[in-house]
Design goal:
Order of helices and strands: HHHHHHHH
Radius of gyration: 20 Å
Largest sheet: none
Number of strands: 0
Structural class: mainly alpha
Mean pLDDT: 81
Number of domains: 1
Oligomer: single chain
Helix content: over 70%
Low-confidence stretches: none
Strand content: under 5%
Length: about 200
Amino acid sequence: MLSLITAMVPSVLRLLANMQGLHSRQRVENYVQIYYFSFLFVQVFLTVSLSAGITTIIGQLPDTVEAIPTLLAQNLPKASNYFFSYIMVHAFTTFAFTLMQVTGLMSMFVLSPLFDKSPRQKWMRRQSLGLQKWGTFVPVFTNMACIGLIYSVIAPLILVFSMIYFGALWVLYRFYPPKLSDLELGASGLFYPTAI
């Protein structure tokens, strides 16, 4: 249920961007990229990192306040175990879903017969099928890079998992690149400085 709610965030952000008056697709996707990364960073990284040490801190808070940095230093590496598994599960699911094209299959064989009544609607669905929505594509990888870089100081083993993750994605997108031929969604490299 939580993953479904999280998956709806980019759609809500696109709706908010359109309501804000951003009508070019590049501006909408850049808006989605900024706010979706902020959402992922808080939801995935900060929530897990802080919840790993907050219970211990609250339990020992009446004893001494000066020991809080020491308690955080002892408990934050425990959250790295979660991120080890998170990175690997995310790598395998991204790899599998990209190869299987689950969203394309659902769109063609489930949504198209239900909602597309005219030949133009069917044609529009097929044309937009392989387009990459960069506002949701880039923030996920930026968040993974942040997790890898930040936790590399605390738990250097995460660098191995990050290398496996980005290596698998490099192989995947080297031989199976996203559809780049659409000029409407091309942003001429504007997503890169925002990601940095």
